[in-house]
Amino acid sequence: MIALLQRVTRASVVVNDVTIGAIGAGLMVLLCAERGDTPKEADALLGKLLAYRVFADDAGKMNRSVTDVAGGVLLVPQFTLAADTCSGTRPSFTPAAAPELARSLFDYFVAQAVQRHVQVATGEFGADMQVSLTNDGPVTFWLQVKPAI
Predict the structure, then answer these.
(1) What is the rounded CA–CA span in Å between residue 39 and residue 113?
(2) Class of domain 2-137
């Protein structure tokens, strides 16, 4: 499972001209399920994401997590993160989980996030979304938890 997280001062998702999710300062997270992913990978990735230290402490070092700063988390499904771009000029999405599994894992991830974090907003699986954000830093990290083989 993959999460591309960006530290933001604000972020929002619009579907059909309606804002369906928005946060202030926190993390905007593009989330992708890959073939072979299970709730085990989702749990591990969520734990890492909520504990990942990307916010400054009093000394200006990245020593605080989104949990520590009570920041928002905006979760946006993004299957293209699993693209295989090794050959040619057209990406292959074979590494991505099938849509039914991906939706199930996204929903699971969101449910777990809501239980573990104070402020969670989401995009809409399968929708044409317009995502807006103000990247703070910029600070962007790729987190990945691969299934055990």
Answers:
(1) 12
(2) alpha beta
78, 106, 109, 122: the catalytic one is 78
The domain limits of the chain are 2-137
78 in active site: yes
Residues linked to residue 29 through DSSP beta bridges, in sequence order: 5, 75
Q: What pTM does this model have?
A: 0.95
Question: Mind listing the pLDDT tens digit of every residue in the chain (149 residues)?
Answer: 999 999 999 999 999 999 999 999 999 999 999 999 999 999 999 999 999 999 999 999 999 999 999 999 999 999 999 999 998 999 999 899 999 999 999 999 999 999 999 999 999 999 999 999 999 999 999 999 998 76
The catalytic position among 6, 38, 55, 80 is 80
Residue whose C-alpha is closest to residue 145's, from 36, 28, 66, 7 = 36
Among 6, 55, 79, 109, which one carries the catalytic annotation? 79
